[in-house]
Structures are given as structure tokens and as C-alpha cells.
Input
Amino acid sequence: MGWNRSLERQLMDISKHIKFGSHWAPASLCVFAALLGCGRLSLGSYGTATDNGAAAGSDSPGPLGTGGSLGASGHGSASGGVAAPSHPAAGAEQGGSASGFGGESNVTIQGGGGGMGASGGMGGTSGGMGASGGMGGTSGGMGASAGMGASSAGATLGAGGEAGEGGSAGEPSGGGAATGRASCRGLAATCGVSKADDCCAALDVPGGKFVLGAGSMAPANATVSDFRLDKYEVTVNRFRSFLAHYDDWRAGHNPTPGTGANPHVGGSGWQSAWDSELAPSASELQARIVACDDTPFSTLQVVEPPNEPRLAMNCLTWYDAAAFCAWDGARLPSELEWEYAATGGGRTSPYPWGATGPSQAYANYGCYFSLNRDQYDPARPPCPFVAGVRALGAGYWGQLDLAGSMGEWVFDEPHHYPSLCNDCAYGGAALQRGLRGGTWVGDSGAMFATSRMSMNAKGRNFFQGVRCATSQGSTCATSCDSNANCNEADGAVTCTCREGFIGDGHSCKRPSSCAELHLARPELPNGRYFLTAKDSSSSVEFLASCEMTVDGGGWTLVLNQDETFDPTTLGDDSCVSSPCTSLAYSRLPLESDLLLDFNSTPIEADQFSARALIRRVHPAALGKTIRELFTTGQFFIDREDNSNVSVSVPSGLTCSQSLPQDLAEVLCQSCATGQSCNAPVMVFGDNDPGCPMESYRFAIGAAYSYSEPWDNCAGWPQDPGYGGGDYYPKNVRIWVR
Output
């Protein structure tokens, strides 16, 4: 289908806020192409089947037997008690891909609901898995005897009728722990298939180890502490409670700094710099949500079905979501926690519910709509947004709507994760924040539990919602640092800094370099680790690649670039795959040694033609960043006799065969100890006087000696007009320590 140009501008206004993860399984939204030219989606009113399914029970030769009572909440980890597909005699099967849900009272599932009738058949009070957990509790599941002509408790066979094959669904994994959360005080329990579950139910997620971003280009071995994750996405009714208390809460100078912190993540609480992102009053907040940055609708203003309290809340900024959770005695989950829950700690794959492909029975997704407000009724949502009614889609620990429905804000910015991730989270100052769960506008490819996307934290959109988390119990003794693990045995408390931190456990900090990390934690392998770099005015945390094995280890990756490299750049906070420039380029001083890799093509892992190790570089270069060396002068690097240079090349080749001409002259000559000889020396920030372009400076060049320049225009990165021959390699990777 081609673009509908009349809607293209609105489309761009929405999609420009979306940023997709590039190194994990990509978040796949329906790119709205299928939505264009569709016209307005015609939905039946709530409580009726639409054109996608036959009227509930319309083909039955007699009335259905009365459904048995719902199972009491159990506490097992498996989804349970879900109604099975209907008997053909009880109406059209699946009814628009909503198999197993029946009419569900006054809620239409994607135009479905046809087929099973009101509660679908085999009533009774004795099915299920028992109170100890499992599939729905003491009375849900397959009831006894109904539909066989005999009378059973709770089921009377209609004359000549055939009952459906399954009973009504029990609540998956039970109702969860009573939370006492502010947003549910005074509210009736209306959530779930039963419409009787606590909308603030929070389910335990036992901690453990798993692979974060499994199958991506940059997976991480991760450890997660115990936490609780809400069973349901935040509903409209819960958010209305927030609005009712908002003005008084804000008048008390809330949220206070540090509120809503994850006790395992230092600095993860509310920051006063975010106060300006919150609306000044409840009425203004409501107006902003209803406007929803001019996207078609907000669930806060939906009026049909009347007074439906269970609609998932949308149109929230990241700041709204963080403030709500903080007010509610909770916090935003980290992206690590969210993915751990969505994948069942690696047990469920590739979807939160397991291996079965997505359908409307599992997740609310692929909901097509009109972007044209003239064709849209803002009082009716384009598809059903009732939270927690797709019991088949429950995750391993029982959370519902982890795929589809609303995208759920998480604490983190989009970022590569360190190779070892122990309760890690990344919450810097960037405006992008993670949004997990695929969303109702996503296609089936967005339903993967590992799919990532990010959006502008200040933006509002009709698929942005939230689910809150809380931490379980005491996480560490007060004498331990917030970035330490603690163990108590025989009355003695032991504090140990978590992976990626250094210190004695009572005080833990990020290292400033891979060398500092390696010195403190020599057992750590090669990988990505967070560092904290300082300059004259500030410090910043960034992710760096560390080489921990070559020549004693402790190398920090500075850059991995090609001939398009701009030496004036500052670098960024993540440099994993080429071409990239780490923030270490402008923040981390050269203290001792350089490791340089060269190749004619992009360098990945150990794929390079030659590696030069330069120990104890020229004293004038020490204490300066590589950026300073490249841009502020002419700095010699190696000794004139090359006695501090060693070059390794692939087996079977010589040094001069592995490097371009000029660089080979610089690095491949060696002088015997005590011999009086000079080899050309490497120069950073080379500005040869013999070059006609007097202002042109190469990042890497050469001189014949400390006193004799090399009068030509060759260097790295190559200039299109000069030095275009095979004098220097196209690709260079630099490590420092």
C-alpha cells in the first residue's frame, strides 16, 4: 500500500518521536503504512460482537448452561483456567481471533467475542488446580459434568443445548500481594478477567541470573535482585486517584529528591531538575493528557463503555510516569528488571507467554486506526484497552499485557549494557527513555520479550503507559554502599561492591578507567563497563570497552574509526562497534601506554592487520587526552630508536607486509639495544611544514626524528586531495592505559 499523502504530516509528527534499538532484537512497530487509507475502524458497541465474529452463541440449538463460578486466586506461576475454544454448536469459533474469551460481559475483544456465549459452558465448582497455585485456584478451569445431561453445581443444561468446552478463566497467578498502594485506596477491585482482582496487585519476581538482550549484538550476563512488578498496567481509575491528590501532593514540594529510587541503583530517584517537567496543577495535567500532543485520543476521556475503570492509562510522559509511581509508593522498573520479568528470567521465549505465536488471545496489538481527527470519535478508543483480560498472555510470574497494549516506560535511557550487569541501570541526562512492551500499534514483530524502543521523555503519545515496580525487603545493611551487595552470617555483615564498581563495600564508585578497574578487579574479563570520566567542569558516566588480557590488561577503548574521522569530535557515551568514538577520547588522559590496531577495513574484535604496542609514550604526551594530542600540537609518541615499540602481525607475514608504506617505515624499524640509530617517529597532531595546506593537521603523522620533520601531506585520516596513496591505513583503533 502506498503512502496516503493527506495523513503523512500527522504520521511524521507521531513517528519522529520514536527511536528504535539497533543492537538488540529490534522493536518492530507497525510503521503505520497499513494504517493509511484504511478509513475509520468500525467497532460494535461494547458488549456485542462486531462484523469480525458471529453473535455470541447464535448457532446454539439451545441456551448455554450457566457458567460455573470463577476460581479463587491461586499463586502459581502458570497461566490458568483460560476458557478453551468454543464448541462449534455454541457459535462461530474464535470470533475474529479472540478465541477463548467469549463475550466477556461488556467488553469486546478486537471485534471478537463471538462463539462462546456469555461464559461458555461447562460450569461447576470442582475444577482447577487447588489453592496452592497453578492454574487459577480452587474453582476455575474445567468444571465437572456440565453439558452431559446431568445437573452439576452451578450448571443447568439448556434444553437441547451443547455447552462450550471450557469454563471461565481463573485469574493467572492469583491476585498477588496486597500492596496498600495509594492509587487503589477506596477503589473497588475491578481488574482481571473476573473483574474482582486488585488493580494494584503486585507479583513477586524472584531474582536470578539471565542473559539480557539474548540474541542481540551486545548481550550481557545479568543478575537481578528480588523485586515486585505490578500485575496490571496502570489503569485510568488509578490515575484519577493521582489527579485527585495531585495539587496537595505538589503543594508539599513533592516529589522530593530521591523519591522513587531503586535501592540497587545509585542516583535513580527523582531529581529536582525534573520538577519543571510536571504540570503545575491537576487540571493542567489532565488537559495535557487529553490533548496528548495532538495524537488522536486519550483513554482518560473515553466515555464508552460508561465508567469503565479498567482502561490502561496512556498519553503519559516519562516524567508523569515516574511521578505517579513515586506518589504511589513505587518506582519505575529498570529495563533490566522489565526484561527479566518479560522473559521469565530466560525461561519463556521468544514471547512473555512462551513460544506460541502472537494472536489477539495473547496480546492487544496491530490495532489499525485513522489519524484523521475528522474521522475519529475521541470518546471511543480504536480497540479495547481494558487492562489484564488476556489471561493466555500472562508472563512467567503472572504479569499481564507485557506484550501489546500500552508501551511501558522504564527508568533507563536507551544504551548498550555492560558485559556484566548486576542490577545495572543507565539513567543519565539524555532526553530519550526506554519504552518496553511493543504497544497496541505494533505488529507481531514487536511482541518479542526482548524488543526495545525508546522515545522522547517529554513527549506524549497514545501508546505510552506505565507499570510500576517495588523492591522487596531490605537490600543491604546501612553500613554498605548503595552500590554494594551485602551478606549477613553469624551476625557479621560483609559488604562487596557490585560488578563494575570498586571500593571496600562501604564506599563504592565507578572506576575512571579500565586500568583502575583491572587493578581493583583483576578477575573481570574483557567486556563493556561503566566508567566515570572528569574534565575541568564536570564528571560523566559512560560505557567503555575494556581489554583485560593483552600485555597485562587494563586498556580503555578510545576510538575505532575510518578515514572519515573528525579529530575535533568529543566522542559519545557508548563506543562498542565501529565506527565510533568513546567519550574517553576527550575525557580520559593518557597515563602510560598506547595500543594501536590497523586495518584496511572496519576493525571488529581481533580482525586487524597489525597491532602496535607503545609502552611509556613520550613524556610530553602524558596526562593529555587523545583529543588534545590530535588537535592542539605536535606530540611525539615513541622513542627515536623504537625501543618502546613492539608490533604483532598475522602469522606468516612481516611487519612491512602488514602495514601501508609510511606507517611501516615508522613502526617496523627496530634498533638493537645500545645501537646508535634512529627510526622515524610517530607524531600525533602532525602539521608538516612541507604540506601546501598550512592549516591542515593530521591526527596521526610522522617525523624523521624529534628534530627533523617529515615534509609531506600524508597522515591519518586520509585527506581526499592529499596523501591519497597507500601511506596510512583506512581504519585505526586506539586503546589507552
Observations:
- The radius of gyration is 31 Å.
- DSSP finds ten helices and 26 strands in the chain.
